[in-house]
Amino acid sequence: MNMRQPEPAAPTTTARMVRIAEDRDGQRLDNFLLGYLKGAPRSLIYKLIRSGQVRVN
């Protein structure tokens, strides 16, 4: 019997560029992402920010 570990799946995410409307200028990043990624838990939003996966220019 040959038991092999499954290979990890390749990441399927790609970079996105999002332009912010003027009325949202000055809004905190975490609050913006909570609205943009509807349904995503706060813990995921904070993890994305802390790990550097969200960048602001």
Distance between the termini: 54 Å
Number of E-type strands:
0
Please report which band the strand proportion falls in: under 5%, 5-15%, 15-25%, 25-35%, 35-45% or over 45%: under 5%
Instruction: Output mean pLDDT.
Output: 85
Oligomer: single chain
| Low-confidence sequence ranges | none
Helix content: 25-40%
Query: SS-based structural class?
Result: mainly alpha
Radius of gyration: 17 Å
Q: Could you say which overall geometry the principal axes of the C-alpha atoms support?
A: elongated
Q: Let me know the largest β-sheet.
A: none
Q: Helix-strand pattern, N to C? A: HH
Helix count, DSSP H or I runs of 4 or more residues: 2
Explain the overall architecture:
- This protein is 30% helix and 0% strand.
- By secondary structure, it is mainly α.
- The protein has a domain at 25-57.
- The longest helix has 9 residues, at 42-50.
- The N and C termini lie far apart (54 Å).
Features:
single chain, 57 residues, mainly alpha, 2 helices
SSE topology:
Blueprint: H1 29-36, H2 42-50
Can you give me a brief rundown of this structure?
The protein has helices at residues 29-36, 42-50. It is mostly helical and 57 residues long.
